[in-house]
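User: Some background: our group keeps a shared notebook of sequences we're curious about, and every so often someone picks one and asks for a predicted structure to add to the entry. Today it's my turn. The entry only has the sequence so far, pasted here. Could you supply the structure so I can complete it?
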Amino acid sequence: MSNNPDQTTALNSFFHQFTQEKIPLLAYCNPCIETLNPQQTMISIPLTAKTMNHLQSMYLGVLTIGAECTAMLMPFMSIMQQNYNIHLIVKSLTADFLKRAESDVSFICNDGELITDTMQQVLHSDKRLNTTVTVSAFTATPKIEVANFQVTLSMKQL
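Assistant: Of course. Here's the predicted structure to add to the notebook entry:
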């Protein structure tokens, strides 16, 4: 996981193929990985005719998909890269929708250390462990916070 442009391009290629095959609803929203490293995950979702409601703003469902994807991307990629046998799922999600998203939206999670710590605990336990991370959503132009989410990830070693 890196911020290297070539690696980001390759990662996005893999991500698009994976979502097309395994998570078509996510693929429909056309997310793009902007940053993926041990500290931070950032994805963006464009405001298009597919993601826009009748008020010309992003559907709340699309915003929620973006938050879920952002929260799960870092642990998912770690599980794949390290070949961990960990089951990962969202246990709960709460949201505060602050303003209408009238342009492309970036979703940011800065809880990489918390996610890594929880994954290490899971590897040394036979119990399901939960951790709650924060995801913030911002419009691209102008940069305005439009929503924030608390996403509880649930992990268990299989």
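Suggested note for the entry: The chain has one domain: 5-157. Residues 5-157 form a domain with the Thiol Ester Dehydrase; Chain A fold (CATH 3.10.129.10).
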